Amino acid sequence: MKLSVKNILKKSKKLPGEITYTGDEENEERKASIINIAYDNEKLKKDMNSIPEIKNIDKRNNLIYFQGISDTETLKNFGNHVGIHKLTLEDISNINQRTKFETYENYVYIVVKLPELKENNLNFYQISIVLIGNNLIVFTEKEFSFIHEIIERLEKNKGIIRSKSVDYLLYSLLDIIIDEYFIILNHTAEELEDIDEEVTINPEQSQLLDLKEIKQSLIILKKNLISFRDLAMFFNKEDNEYVLKENLIYFRDLTDHILQISDNLDLLKDTTTNITEIYLSLIGNKTNEIMKVLTIISTIFIPLSFVAGLYGMNFSYMPELNWDFGYFYALGIMATMVVIMLIIFKIKKWF
């Protein structure tokens, strides 16, 4: 799993409140689309491609989905109509925000990171949310399936989502995003299991690089999750003006899921570290085995070199040189030395 990092420093110097899209160039030509769903337990009304004004929006709960924040002109007009501060609009168009929440006079602004695993590459996409009155407004760069899952629940009246207030809709949205973290964790756990088996059988350098990428991804996931936890705990407070007391239990459940993911992330980080240590240990043992073999070979040749060097000295008189079978005697002595040394090494279990 490889972490994709891009557009981190794309934001240029500009005036506060200036709306500039900082995402991928491929999205810059994307035209904004707006879906406005007004609902209650009995009726649902769906409008598309219009800029609603908060004061003219149906008094029922509303989910407004703004897709295509690269269309900064439409984003600016929409923000002015619904009463969103220009600094919030600036943050919405800048996709390099961290997970956070900010309270304004009449609304709360939320930023969360949606993880997406595609072709073993881990990407994070910014989801901006504004909760203003009985209206939940969601801003994204491009189309995502999670928002359509929420829309389908509303249209088909699945569960209790239509009978609840808009803060429950916020919970449902955050819960779906948190579920994506579970999916990433399961994939990472399976990937680590495969690498663990490969390392045990045949450790290779590519496995170490994979472990490094996984650990980097886990660190980023943990960083986003800590901010996500702070966000969930903010909505857990009894005196929170944005959440009804009857819905606090859902945000507590969301916090519990976040803590569970956090624990699993720590476990996976420890597993990654353990597999890395096993890899290095196996590589070290393999290197030691190679050095042991080379040392044994070198040790065997020490006495052979001595014999060869002895009879290679340039003296005028060496009686053994005149023996008829002196050469074979020398070879026999060398072979005997090799056998004796091998027996000694075997007794000492050096190989």
Automatic annotation (TrEMBL):
The keyword Ligase does not apply. Keywords: Cell membrane, Ion transport, Magnesium, Membrane, Transmembrane, Transmembrane helix, Transport. GO terms for molecular function: cobalt ion binding; cobalt ion transmembrane transporter activity; magnesium ion binding; magnesium ion transmembrane transporter activity. GO terms for cellular component: plasma membrane. It is a multi-pass membrane protein. The chain crosses the membrane at residues 293-313, 325-345. Pfam families: CorA. InterPro entries: CorA_cytoplasmic_dom, CorA_TM1_TM2, Mg/Co-transport_prot_CorA, MgTranspt_CorA/ZnTranspt_ZntB. It is found in: Cell membrane; Membrane. Signal peptide: none annotated. It catalyses: Mg(2+)(in) = Mg(2+)(out). Belongs to the CorA metal ion transporter (MIT) (TC 1.A.35) family. Mediates influx of magnesium ions. Alternates between open and closed states. Activated by low cytoplasmic Mg(2+) levels. Inactive when cytoplasmic Mg(2+) levels are high. This is Magnesium transport protein CorA. It comes from Geotoga petraea. The gene is corA.
